[in-house]
Amino acid sequence: MGQRVAIVGTGQTDHKSSRKDVNGVELIQEATARALEDAGLRRQDIDAVVIGNMDHFEGINYVDMWSIDGNGGLHKPVMKVTTGGTTGTTVAIAGYYHVASGLFDTVLAIGWEKNSESDTTAAIITCADPFWERPTFGGAVAGLAGAACEYMHRYGITERDAALIAVRDRKNALKNPYAHLRKEITVEDVLNSPMLAYPIKLLDMCPRSDGACAIVFASEDKTKCITDKPAWVHQVSSRHNFTFFTDVERAGRMPTLYEACMDIYKNEGIKNPLHELDVVEMYVPSSFAGLVWIDALGVCDEGGAARLVSDGVTEMDGELPINPSGGVISTNCIGATGLIRVAEAAMQISGKAGEHQIDGAELALATGFGGCQWSDVLLIGSSKPN
User: Fold this and answer.
1) Least trusted range by pLDDT, from 74-83, 234-243, 245-254, 276-285
2) Parallel, antiparallel, or unpaired for β 374-381 and 231-239?
3) pLDDT, averaged across the chain
4) Checking DSSP bridges between strand 48-52 and strand 106-114, what pairing results, if any?
C-alpha cells in the first residue's frame, strides 16, 4: 500500500481570452509561484514536477524542457503528460501517484494553455482519422452537438433545460476572482445567442482561455509540517474505452465517466453519492454535456439530470452543488482545465474557496473529460483516507 497523499497548495493565474502580458514560461511561473505561496514552500522544497498542455494546439513541443525557468524543475525529475482534454486531471493523477509511490515527498503538478496562440478546432479535426472520421467530425463543437441531439431525442429534454446549466455556472463565476467569463446571463440570452451547431449555441459553449494552474501534492509526513487543513486524495480512477471518435457510445449517459465514478464509489464505500458528496467540480464544456454527465455521476436515473437542475439541487445552496467555481463554461485553458477542477475541489475541502465556498464541504469529486470520451475522476476529502 502506498503512502497517503494530500493537496497542500494550489495556484491559478488570472484567466483571460488573451494574456498578451506574458509568454508561456511567465504564465506557468505565475501559477507555480501562487501554489508555492499557498503551501508556504519554496522551489527547492519540491522534489519533482509533472507538467502538461495540449501541445498539438500550439504546435510547440517539450514544455517540460523549455519552461524550466517557470516550472522550477531545474536539476529535478520532470515528467510531461498530454492526454487531450483530460490533460489537467491526468497531470493531477500522475502527481498523486508520484507521491503515493513513495518515490517523492513533494510534487508540483502544472497544467497550462495559451489558447490565444493556437487553433483548437483545426488541431482536433486533424487528429481525427483522415479516412473514417475527418469528413464528418467537425471538431469539439460538432461532437458535442451530436451527443446533445441524441440525448434530447432519447429523454425529451429541451434547449431550455440545457440553458439552465450555462446560467448556473456563469452565475457562480461571479464569485470566483479567477474566472475568465464573469457576467451573469439568462436562459433567454442563451436561447437567443448565435447557433454554432444545432442544438449548441454560443452561450451553451465554454470559452477559449489563456491560463495555468498548479497544485502541490505532499506525503503524509510532509503534510504535517505544511498545513493543518489539507485536502486528502481518497481515490482516483480513469477510463479510456474507445480508440476512434466513431467508436464512442453517445446514447444515454457517458459510459467512461459512469464506470470511473462507480469504481470510486465502490472503493470508498459510497452508497448514495447524491447525499454523500458535498460538492462536485465537473468538466462541463457545454450546457448539454452538463446534463448528460450529471446522469453519469450516478446521482439520478438516466435522463433525470434536467429535473435535478431545474429543482435547484445542483445550485450552490442545493443538496449537491456542482461547479461553484463557474466551471469550464466560465474558464477553459484546456491543458489546465481539469487541474483547475481538482484545485477547486481541494480549495473547497481546505476552506479556501472564498466567496464560492460551500459550507461544511468534507467530500468533493473532480472530473476530467477529453478525446474519445476519456474520463478521469478524483475524490478528495477532509479526513485521511483508509
Assistant:
1) 245-254
2) antiparallel
3) 94
4) parallel
